[in-house]
Predict the structure.
Amino acid sequence: MDSDASFRSAIVNGETLKMFVGQRVRTVLKVQHTQGGLLVGQSTDGHQLTIRGATEGLMSNYLEVIGIADNDQSITAESSKDFGEDFDADVFNGLCKLVVNGKVKEVVL
């Protein structure tokens, strides 16, 4: 099945976000606080990220964000989903490493 390339997103953590500036990305972060329309959270590998336009996100819950990487610390959200308090950050970071190191040729979500 051929998926539309416009809906593909790179799976990133805080460290690998810089490799995809200007592109659609998918990440998970732990919400720290919201401030003036921005959501601030900690990536699964410990980097602080700012999300513009996230519509969900309870304090200290994990949030999946899909959007465009503005720079190495910021994403403009197209969609977001609350994953709750229980999320395995180590597994997600492992997936990010596999994707970036070319162990997985293509992950379309």
About this structure: The mean pLDDT is 86. The helical segments are 89-100. Residues 5-84 form a domain with the OB fold (Dihydrolipoamide Acetyltransferase, E2P) fold (CATH 2.40.50.140).
